[in-house]
Amino acid sequence: MLKKKKNKKILFTGGHAGTTTLSIxxxxxxxxKNWELHFIGVKKAIEGKxxxxxxxxxxxxxxxxxxSLVTGRIQKKFTRxxxxxxxxxxxxxxHAFTLVNRIKPDVVVSVGGFASFPVVINxxxxxxxxxxxxxxxxxGLANKxxxxxxxxxxxxxxxxxxxxxxxxxxxxxxxIRGDYAKLPVKEKITGTPTILITGGSRGSQPINRMIxxxxxxxxxxxxxxxxxxxxxxxxxxxxxxxNYVVYDFVDLKDMVNFFKESDVxxxxxxxxTVSELIALCKPAILIPIPWTRYDEQNLNAxxxxxxxxxxxxxxxxxxxxxxxxxxxxxxxxxxxxVKEVKxxxxxxxxxxxxxxxxxxxxxxx
Length: 365
Fold this sequence. Notes:
By secondary structure, the protein is α/β, with parallel strands linked by helices. The chain folds into 2 domains: 183 residues, Glycogen Phosphorylase B (Rossmann fold, 3-Layer(aba) Sandwich); 164 residues, Glycogen Phosphorylase B (Rossmann fold, 3-Layer(aba) Sandwich). It has 14 helices and 13 strands.
């Protein structure tokens, strides 16, 4: 009697990259892969605060087993939680050992972030093949450290090649979700221009401070959709009006609709945000996080600017008036910007999900 063939187990891990993983998961479903899917990540986004991570919110609702990892990180800004967070890194290594040992994956796919490193260490000790995907135009610290143990390294931008061993590095692009890939490119503004302001799933207090100074001016000319994050939501909620809607958090379907509706986007320059903006040829004003280790957000923003899509501004609150002028410039030049970016036919990110799933298949099929 033949034994029933067991499903291959694919373990994803990382932080700050829930949408990257979701893009890959969507492609796995589209290809009808009979794989058992797992994800190891953290549940809380900020040490000492009850703010849930994007990956926990979205992946725990998918057909994937989410395993919450208790670990810490090296914080860039010292707070009363910094020492405790650092000590939790060692706890994370032992906790990851327990989780990886229980799951027994056939391959591990790391999308970077501090939560991925303990998992990668333990996968390497178990001799499990490791695939790394780097979303940024530079390199994340966790991916840089884990690259030695990786069997395959997949990068989104040519500029990342110099950070990794050449023989096992391949350019595939940064995967965007099918929902974004299917949206039509908006080629002209109809009616009152709509501005989407987002600091990411957790919000951005520096961006919120900039916006607060010019909010009355914005509302005189534009409709504004503002994703503040949980920390500033109550403060901005009191300004709600017919042309100003504010949210602490939105699900992914709403976010796709906001991108579709908006004419100009003001955002951080995370890799996924930039990829989505490029795919939709959406004029933007990008405000890079200034303290990233390899300046990856600034490099992501410069990539979008080089395509003619984005303007870049510092997060200093004194830049508010400059931001106001940039918004007007992007609105006035909207059609020309869209036409120029569309002409370049940058499709690398649209094809990335299939390329990544094909690479995973090489290790398990």
